[in-house]
Write a structure and sequence with these properties.
By secondary structure, this protein is of the alpha/beta class. It has two domains: 2-91, no CATH class; 110-280, Zincin-like (2-Layer Sandwich). The protein is built from eight helices and eleven strands. It has helices at 64-80, 82-91, 93-105, 160-189, 226-239, 247-253, 261-268, 276-280, and strands at 2-4, 10-18, 25-28, 33-39, 110-113, 118-126, 132-143, 146-155, 196-200, 207-209, 214-218. The strands form three sheets. A four-stranded mixed sheet has the order 1-2-4-3, covered by helices on one side. A four-stranded mixed sheet has the order 5-6-8-7. α4 packs across α5 and α5 packs across α6.
Length: 281
């Protein structure tokens, strides 16, 4: 399905059934996919014979008529929220363009981790193996404070999916090694004392601060410039004092050196910095 904005922008429209959702809701992804989430209990049901390919978790039976009704429901819901969709599409155009350009570039030739002053040059080496392995291959040189290192990806390198998975594993491992130390230093600068700092894979935020005082940072922050990564950590450090987004929270956040409203806005648009191969991996 497709949703066409008034200015001609075309967005892929998908529908997803959810057992947890209570209401229909919309989301627009970094790649331009418009998704309508439909609570399973609110989905139209087919009155025809049972389809053997039906979702085994569902008590409803789906045939072409049921699927068509579900798509019609999603299309009508999207149309009723056209104003929101068109605002969101305009606001996220730059990130969609960045994603499209990055995806067209294919697999990366290097990995740049600014917060650690690391640049990894990637060498792809084909072998007879049907899998793909990835291995650091030593320091090459220094460029000022930045280390230039080598990374060897070997095996079935014609299989882009396997290469992406191997690269994602490497980035994830490096993020878990580097981000906590970086975050601890930033917290120390402002006198914040989290109970623990860890790295995970988040869908809707760059970080989170729990009620127990744990700070968790998204692994994708490894691709951020150091000042932007610092802003992510400062945001969560401020939550240690105010676990909300009240005026007192923002007063605390912007009292930290280098933390500004402009820096916060930049972080909200940072998805464009993440390469498509990593988002798709």
């Amino acid at each position: 399905m497709e949703f066409v904005c008034s200015d001609g922008t075309r967005l892929e429209l998908k529908v997803r059934l959810s057992d947890k959702a209570k209401h229909l809701r919309l989301s627009l992804s970094h790649s331009g996919v418009l998704q309508v989430v439909v609570p399973r209990r609110a989905a139209p049901r087919s009155s025809g014979r049972r389809n053997k390919a039906a979702d085994p978790r569902s008590s409803s039976t789906w045939e072409d008529s049921g699927e068509a009704a579900l798509e019609a429901l999603a299309a009508d819901f999207a149309e009723s929220h056209r104003a929101w969709i068109e605002r969101a599409a305009r606001r996220t155009k730059a990130q969609r363009d960045a994603y499209t350009e990055s995806r067209a570039a294919g697999l990366p030739t290097h990995l740049d981790f600014p917060l650690a002053n690391e640049l990894w040059l990637i060498e792809y080496k084909p072998t007879a193996a049907k899998s793909v392995t990835i291995k650091p291959d030593g320091l090459r040189r220094y460029e000022g404070a930045r280390q230039v290192l080598a990374l060897r990806v070997s095996g079935d390198i014609e299989n882009e999916a396997l290469c992406r998975k191997a690269l994602v594993r490497f980035v994830t491992r490096r993020a878990k090694e580097l981000i906590p130390d970086f975050a601890r230093k930033v917290c120390c600068e402002v006198g914040a004392v989290p109970r623990a700092i860890s790295v995970n894979n988040r869908k809707s935020a760059w970080g989170i601060c729990t009620q127990s005082g744990d700070i968790r940072i998204d692994r994708k922050v490894l691709f951020f410039p150091a000042d932007m990564a610092r802003q992510v950590v400062l945001h969560e450090a401020a939550h240690l004092k105010h676990l909300n987004h009240s005026e007192r929270f923002y007063n605390e956040l912007f009292s930290y050196e280098g933390s500004t409203p402009e820096a916060e806005k930049a972080v909200k648009k940072a998805i464009r910095l993440i390469p498509a191969w990593f988002l798709d991996g």
